[in-house]
Each structure stands twice: as structure tokens, then as C-alpha cells.
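Human:
I keep going back and forth on a fold encoding question. Comparing notes only helps if you start from a blank page. Show me how you would write down a chain together with its backbone fold. Write it directly below this note and I will take it from there.

Assistant:
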Amino acid sequence: MTETRHLDWQYRRDYIRTRSRRRPGDTDIEPAWADEAFADDAALIDSPDPASKSGQTDRLVGYSLSARMVIVVIYLRDGLIGVNAWKANPTQASRYWAGQATTDREGKDKA
């Protein structure tokens, strides 16, 4: 990818950084990690997010090299505003890694 893709976290930066306060045992997520997952060329995207009530958000599952983990990122499509991010659960991470086994970095099926 030639340009850096990132989300606007101005409204939810502190929210994702303090997940463990609200959900003991959860991993606090740095916005930079969420942006790395968002910029992952091989990320999986559900549009709209299946849990979205408004239909205005997308769910992306991508890898953060800095965090060394698969991260789920929820964002508003209009304005690319970050809404939430968390460490992927085992099912989400498996789905991500399975996608890596069947496609290359450009999203094309491997022969």
C-alpha cells in the first residue's frame, strides 16, 4: 500500500485505551495498533458490521505488527471515524489467518 490509512480516533481514543477498566481481562488497544490493523492490505471487512444497528459502521479484522495481534476495528464509513477496537477472539483470529492461507497480499486467490 502506497499511502498510510488511518482512522480519526479523537472521540474514542481513550475508550479503546482503557478497555480493561470496563472489561477486566481485556486488552487495552492503542489507536496506532488499530490503525495498523486498518491499513492491513489483507484485512477482512464486513460491510456493514453485522452488529450495527444503524448500518453505518464496518467491521474490519486485521493484523497489527506493533501489537503482534489480530485486532477487530469498528469504524464509521463516512469520515473514517474509529468507534471501537479490541483484540480478536480465537474465532475471529482463526478466520483472519485462514484468509491469509487462501489469498495473497493483494487479495487474489493463491494458485
Observations:
- The two ends are 22 Å apart (CA to CA).
- The chain has one domain: 13-102.
